[in-house]
Design goal:
390 residues; alpha/beta; Rossmann fold; 2 domains; 4-stranded antiparallel beta sheet; arsenite-transporting ATPase; ATPase_ArsA/GET3
Length: 390
């Protein structure tokens, strides 16, 4: 199933672009679902019609869905939440406060993303268009499987065995917090496998891609540049950038001259920053973009008569290259600077940190024995040198 995830800074129009993409894709006879994971639920506003937690037909070949985050949390988190609540109650929190504290920030958006996996399993549609949360929240969610991997594979089994041994003794005293039952550990394992399944789908560059929606404004472009680097770090493919709300040539009023100059300047920056990724554009319309007619006009502007579903660009996030003295692991980290990059290696794992985000790369056996001899950043590529140390 072709999957396109739209994200961008809040207010740039990503929901409208996602809805417009679904309409355009369905015009060629495809069955398309557009799904919002954002708790703000702007998708119903874009279609100017109520949308619920079950897919609702909006037009020929187009269905829309807004997550019922409460039911998704109950389905995927209730057992873990119940245990964490008992720990907070043991510490003195009242029941209501304990239940609230047991919910991690960003859980709403996370469980919305789990629906991506379900729709892939059910395979009822030809394409899935995801209207994701704003960039910052989306990056945190997309990096979560990688962040959890070490804990789940290395630490969780040890904790599970330890809890089983200590539980009979802990139950006889009130000086220790309640220990999790084995079912809680099993629920945690299932939760990790579910979000890892989403990661597997969204990093499959044959079928899935991310599209960044921006306005030609300084702060918006700066955030998109950072997002592009971090998405490459975690191996999510970006196949297009959509620049929304550009002043059309028909606007001649001198009041907008400075806006036009600024947009032209930022467009040059966008083209320089994201090349060779395709840059799609949409003009600033003279009305609000809601309802099928307006969304259709937006789709025509963005895609200019072309099919929005094919992969518009494909490039690997990292590669392994043999050199005279060993190997180089090469990461495509466009826009990253050397001062932002921190590197370490332990055993078969290579740890790369760019800014506030970290990626753990499990090296193949042939490279695991090699030592990290240094790194360099050249033309948007991080090159990590691995040698035998001799």
């Amino acid at each position: 199933m072709r999957t396109i995830l739209y994200t961008g800074k809040g207010g740039v129009g990503k929901t409208s672009v996602a809805a417009a993409t679904a309409l355009k894709a369905a015009s060629s006879g495809k069955r398309v679902l557009v799904m919002s994971t954002d708790p703000a639920h702007s998708l119903s506003d874009a279609f100017d019609a109520p949308i619920g937690p079950d897919p609702k037909k909006m037009a020929t070949g187009v269905w829309a869905q807004e997550m019922d985050h409460t039911s998704m949390i109950e389905e995927n988190w209730s057992e873990i939440q119940a245990y964490v609540s008992t720990v907070f109650e043991w510490q003195g929190a009242n029941t209501l406060a304990a239940e609230e504290l047991a919910m991690l920030p960003g859980m709403d958006e996370l469980f919305g993303l789990l629906m991506v996996r379900r729709h892939h399993q059910e395979a009822a549609y030809d394409a899935l268009i995801v209207d994701a949360a704003p960039t910052g929240e989306t990056l945190k969610l997309l990096s979560l499987p990688d962040q959890m991997n070490w804990y789940v594979e290395k630490l969780l089994p040890i904790q599970r065995r330890a809890a089983k041994l200590v539980r009979p003794f802990a139950s006889r005293t009130k000086s220790l917090p309640p220990l999790p039952q084995d079912s809680v550990f099993a629920a945690g394992q299932r939760f990790y496998e579910a979000i890892a399944g989403v990661e597997e789908i969204l990093t499959d560059r044959r079928e899935a891609s991310v599209r960044l929606v921006v306005n030609a404004e300084k702060m918006v472009v700066a955030e998109a540049r950072r997002a592009y680097t971090y998405l490459n770090l975690y191996d999510y493919g970006v196949d297009a950038v959509v620049v929304n709300r550009l002043l059309p040539d028909s606007v001649k009023d001198p009041y907008f001259d400075q806006w036009r100059e600024a947009q032209a300047r930022h467009m040059r920056s966008i083209e320089e920053s994201f090349s060779p990724i395709p840059i799609l554009t949409a003009r600033l319309f003279n009305r609000e973009m809601f309802g099928l007619e307006a969304l259709g006009a937006l789709a025509d502007d963005v895609f200019d008569g072309t099919d929005p579903l094919p992969m518009l660009f494909n490039g690997a996030a990292h590669d392994v290259v043999k050199t005279g003295s060993g190997y180089e692991v090469v990461f495509n980290l466009p826009l990253a600077e050397k001062r932002e990059v921190d590197l370490s290696k332990r055993g078969a794992e290579l740890f790369v940190r760019v800014g506030g985000y970290r990626r753990n790369i499990l090296l193949p056996d042939s490279l695991a024995r090699l030592a990290a001899a240094g790194a360099s950043v050249e033309d948007g590529r991080l090159k990590v040198r691995l040698t035998d140390g001799s």
